[in-house]
Amino acid sequence: MQVPKVLGVKSGPSWDEVRVRLVPGQKPEDFDDAARALAVARKVTRCQVRELEPNVVLLDFQRRDLLKASVDCAELPDLAAVDGVDLRRVFAGRTEYGKDWRLPLTGPGAHMLVAGATGAGKNSVMWCPLVSAASAIRAGTVRVSGIDPKGMELAYGRGIFARYGVAGKDAIEVLDDLLDGLETRKREFAGLTREVPISKENPLEVLEFDEMGP
Protein backbone atom coordinates (compact mmCIF):
# COMPACT_ATOMS: atom_id res chain seq x y z
CA MET A 1 0.00 0.00 0.00
CA GLN A 2 1.29 3.43 -0.93
CA VAL A 3 1.20 6.28 1.58
CA PRO A 4 1.96 10.01 1.13
CA LYS A 5 5.68 10.78 1.49
CA VAL A 6 6.92 13.51 3.86
CA LEU A 7 9.42 15.60 1.90
CA GLY A 8 10.41 17.99 4.66
CA VAL A 9 9.45 19.64 7.94
CA LYS A 10 10.02 23.26 8.93
CA SER A 11 9.16 24.92 12.24
CA GLY A 12 8.66 28.63 12.87
CA PRO A 13 7.58 30.73 15.86
CA SER A 14 3.94 29.78 15.46
CA TRP A 15 3.56 27.13 12.74
CA ASP A 16 4.94 23.72 11.81
CA GLU A 17 5.05 23.17 8.05
CA VAL A 18 5.05 19.64 6.66
CA ARG A 19 5.65 19.20 2.93
CA VAL A 20 3.99 16.06 1.55
CA ARG A 21 4.00 14.34 -1.84
CA LEU A 22 0.65 12.80 -2.79
CA VAL A 23 0.28 9.24 -4.00
CA PRO A 24 -1.35 8.54 -7.38
CA GLY A 25 -5.09 9.03 -7.13
CA GLN A 26 -4.92 11.54 -4.28
CA LYS A 27 -5.80 15.21 -4.61
CA PRO A 28 -5.22 18.23 -2.34
CA GLU A 29 -8.92 18.31 -1.48
CA ASP A 30 -8.50 14.96 0.28
CA PHE A 31 -6.22 16.69 2.77
CA ASP A 32 -8.67 19.59 3.09
CA ASP A 33 -11.34 17.10 4.14
CA ALA A 34 -8.97 15.58 6.70
CA ALA A 35 -7.60 18.89 8.04
CA ARG A 36 -9.58 18.80 11.28
CA ALA A 37 -8.56 15.21 12.00
CA LEU A 38 -4.92 16.10 11.27
CA ALA A 39 -5.11 19.03 13.71
CA VAL A 40 -6.53 16.81 16.44
CA ALA A 41 -3.84 14.19 15.82
CA ARG A 42 -1.14 16.88 16.06
CA LYS A 43 -2.84 18.32 19.19
CA VAL A 44 -3.22 21.81 17.71
CA THR A 45 -6.31 23.89 17.04
CA ARG A 46 -5.79 24.42 13.34
CA CYS A 47 -4.39 22.75 10.25
CA GLN A 48 -4.56 24.29 6.82
CA VAL A 49 -3.57 22.86 3.47
CA ARG A 50 -1.73 24.69 0.70
CA GLU A 51 -0.99 23.28 -2.75
CA LEU A 52 2.63 24.04 -3.62
CA GLU A 53 2.87 22.31 -6.98
CA PRO A 54 1.25 19.36 -8.75
CA ASN A 55 1.14 16.41 -6.33
CA VAL A 56 2.78 18.35 -3.46
CA VAL A 57 0.94 20.00 -0.57
CA LEU A 58 2.03 21.85 2.54
CA LEU A 59 0.30 21.03 5.83
CA ASP A 60 0.45 24.02 8.19
CA PHE A 61 -0.11 23.22 11.87
CA GLN A 62 -0.73 26.31 13.99
CA ARG A 63 0.82 26.05 17.45
CA ARG A 64 0.30 29.68 18.47
CA ASP A 65 -2.04 32.44 17.26
CA LEU A 66 0.09 35.51 16.57
CA LEU A 67 -3.02 37.61 15.86
CA LYS A 68 -4.57 37.17 19.30
CA ALA A 69 -3.10 40.50 20.35
CA SER A 70 -3.35 43.73 18.38
CA VAL A 71 -0.62 44.47 15.86
CA ASP A 72 0.97 47.89 16.24
CA CYS A 73 0.69 50.22 13.28
CA ALA A 74 3.93 51.12 11.57
CA GLU A 75 5.69 54.26 12.79
CA LEU A 76 4.77 57.38 10.87
CA PRO A 77 7.44 57.56 8.16
CA ASP A 78 9.76 60.50 7.66
CA LEU A 79 7.51 62.96 5.89
CA ALA A 80 10.43 64.20 3.82
CA ALA A 81 11.32 60.76 2.44
CA VAL A 82 8.81 60.63 -0.40
CA ASP A 83 11.02 58.43 -2.56
CA GLY A 84 11.06 55.80 0.16
CA VAL A 85 7.38 54.95 -0.30
CA ASP A 86 6.80 51.85 -2.43
CA LEU A 87 3.17 52.31 -3.45
CA ARG A 88 3.04 48.80 -4.86
CA ARG A 89 3.57 47.23 -1.43
CA VAL A 90 2.74 49.49 1.51
CA PHE A 91 2.76 48.07 5.04
CA ALA A 92 -0.75 47.06 6.19
CA GLY A 93 -0.10 44.82 9.20
CA ARG A 94 1.17 41.36 10.06
CA THR A 95 0.13 37.96 8.81
CA GLU A 96 -0.68 34.96 10.98
CA TYR A 97 2.78 33.69 10.01
CA GLY A 98 4.44 36.67 11.70
CA LYS A 99 5.50 38.31 8.43
CA ASP A 100 4.77 41.82 7.17
CA TRP A 101 1.51 42.10 5.24
CA ARG A 102 1.82 44.53 2.36
CA LEU A 103 -0.86 45.78 -0.01
CA PRO A 104 -0.65 47.57 -3.36
CA LEU A 105 -2.06 51.10 -3.76
CA THR A 106 -1.19 50.99 -7.44
CA GLY A 107 -0.63 48.30 -10.04
CA PRO A 108 -2.21 44.82 -10.14
CA GLY A 109 -4.38 44.02 -7.15
CA ALA A 110 -4.85 47.65 -6.08
CA HIS A 111 -8.64 47.28 -5.90
CA MET A 112 -9.59 45.87 -2.52
CA LEU A 113 -12.86 44.88 -0.87
CA VAL A 114 -12.70 44.23 2.88
CA ALA A 115 -15.51 42.41 4.68
CA GLY A 116 -15.84 41.28 8.27
CA ALA A 117 -18.05 41.20 11.34
CA THR A 118 -18.40 44.21 13.61
CA GLY A 119 -15.24 44.52 15.68
CA ALA A 120 -13.15 42.35 13.34
CA GLY A 121 -10.70 45.19 12.64
CA LYS A 122 -11.73 46.25 9.15
CA ASN A 123 -10.68 49.84 9.78
CA SER A 124 -7.07 48.79 10.28
CA VAL A 125 -6.95 47.65 6.65
CA MET A 126 -8.18 51.10 5.65
CA TRP A 127 -5.91 53.26 7.81
CA CYS A 128 -2.59 51.38 8.02
CA PRO A 129 -1.76 51.68 4.30
CA LEU A 130 -2.48 55.42 4.48
CA VAL A 131 -0.10 55.79 7.42
CA SER A 132 2.55 53.96 5.40
CA ALA A 133 1.96 56.33 2.46
CA ALA A 134 1.77 59.45 4.65
CA SER A 135 4.84 61.15 3.19
CA ALA A 136 3.55 60.68 -0.37
CA ILE A 137 0.15 62.07 0.68
CA ARG A 138 1.84 65.05 2.32
CA ALA A 139 3.94 65.63 -0.80
CA GLY A 140 0.90 65.52 -3.07
CA THR A 141 1.93 62.51 -5.16
CA VAL A 142 -0.95 60.55 -3.59
CA ARG A 143 -4.39 62.15 -3.29
CA VAL A 144 -6.99 60.45 -1.12
CA SER A 145 -10.77 60.81 -1.45
CA GLY A 146 -13.29 59.47 1.02
CA ILE A 147 -16.93 58.44 0.84
CA ASP A 148 -18.40 57.86 4.29
CA PRO A 149 -22.20 57.29 4.21
CA LYS A 150 -22.39 56.99 8.02
CA GLY A 151 -20.32 60.12 8.47
CA MET A 152 -18.42 58.44 11.32
CA GLU A 153 -15.59 56.16 10.26
CA LEU A 154 -13.59 58.41 7.92
CA ALA A 155 -14.29 61.56 9.93
CA TYR A 156 -11.29 60.76 12.17
CA GLY A 157 -8.95 61.51 9.27
CA ARG A 158 -11.02 64.19 7.57
CA GLY A 159 -7.96 66.39 7.06
CA ILE A 160 -6.20 64.01 4.67
CA PHE A 161 -9.08 63.73 2.20
CA ALA A 162 -8.91 66.00 -0.83
CA ARG A 163 -12.53 65.09 -1.55
CA TYR A 164 -15.04 63.92 1.05
CA GLY A 165 -18.65 62.84 0.69
CA VAL A 166 -21.22 61.75 3.25
CA ALA A 167 -24.76 62.00 1.89
CA GLY A 168 -25.73 60.45 -1.44
CA LYS A 169 -25.37 63.72 -3.36
CA ASP A 170 -21.92 64.37 -1.90
CA ALA A 171 -20.79 60.86 -2.79
CA ILE A 172 -21.91 61.30 -6.40
CA GLU A 173 -20.02 64.59 -6.62
CA VAL A 174 -16.84 62.90 -5.37
CA LEU A 175 -17.18 60.12 -7.95
CA ASP A 176 -18.01 62.57 -10.75
CA ASP A 177 -14.92 64.65 -9.95
CA LEU A 178 -12.73 61.55 -9.94
CA LEU A 179 -14.21 60.43 -13.24
CA ASP A 180 -13.63 63.86 -14.82
CA GLY A 181 -9.97 63.69 -13.79
CA LEU A 182 -9.68 60.18 -15.20
CA GLU A 183 -11.08 61.30 -18.54
CA THR A 184 -8.70 64.26 -18.66
CA ARG A 185 -5.68 62.02 -18.05
CA LYS A 186 -6.92 59.53 -20.60
CA ARG A 187 -7.03 62.21 -23.29
CA GLU A 188 -3.62 63.57 -22.30
CA PHE A 189 -1.75 60.25 -22.26
CA ALA A 190 -3.68 58.27 -24.88
CA GLY A 191 -1.24 56.73 -27.37
CA LEU A 192 1.78 57.65 -25.22
CA THR A 193 1.73 55.20 -22.31
CA ARG A 194 -0.48 52.58 -20.71
CA GLU A 195 0.53 53.65 -17.20
CA VAL A 196 0.38 57.31 -16.22
CA PRO A 197 3.54 58.30 -14.28
CA ILE A 198 2.73 59.38 -10.72
CA SER A 199 3.65 62.99 -9.98
CA LYS A 200 2.31 66.08 -8.22
CA GLU A 201 0.67 67.05 -11.49
CA ASN A 202 -0.85 63.57 -11.85
CA PRO A 203 -1.11 62.15 -8.33
CA LEU A 204 -2.20 58.61 -7.61
CA GLU A 205 -5.92 58.82 -6.79
CA VAL A 206 -6.96 56.60 -3.86
CA LEU A 207 -10.64 56.24 -2.98
CA GLU A 208 -11.70 54.99 0.46
CA PHE A 209 -15.37 53.92 0.56
CA ASP A 210 -16.62 52.89 3.98
CA GLU A 211 -19.78 50.80 4.32
CA MET A 212 -20.98 49.91 0.85
CA GLY A 213 -23.85 47.85 2.26
CA PRO A 214 -26.83 48.99 4.35
Task: Describe the secondary-structure layout.
Layout: E1 5-11, E2 15-21, H1 28-33, H2 35-42, E3 46-53, E4 56-62, E5 90-94, E6 100-103, H3 122-132, H4 134-139, E7 142-147, E8 161-165, H5 168-189, E9 204-209
Parallel strand pairs: 7-8, 7-9
Antiparallel strand pairs: 1-2, 2-4, 3-4, 5-6
Q: In what order do the strands lie side by side in the largest sheet?
A: 1-2-4-3
Number of domains: 2
Strand-pairing-aware structural class: alpha/beta
* Helix-strand topology string: EEHHEEEEHHEEHE
Unreliable stretches covering 5 or more consecutive residues: none
Nearest-integer average pLDDT? 86
| Radius of gyration, CA atoms, in whole angstroms | 22 Å
Largest sheet: 4 strands, antiparallel
Estimate the helix proportion, in percent.
10-25%
Instruction: Compute the number of helices.
Output: 5
Strand content: 25-35%
Distance between the termini: 56 Å
Number of E-state strands: 9
Shape: elongated
Description:
The protein has 214 residues and is α/β, with parallel strands linked by helices. It folds into two domains: 5-62, Threonyl-tRNA Synthetase, Chain A, domain 2 (2-Layer Sandwich), CATH 3.30.980; 82-209, no CATH class. It contains five helices and nine strands. The protein has a four-stranded antiparallel sheet. A three-stranded parallel sheet has the order 8-7-9. A two-stranded antiparallel ribbon has the order 5-6. The longest helix is centred in the C-terminal third of the chain and has 22 residues, at 168-189. The chain is elongated, with a radius of gyration of 22 Å.
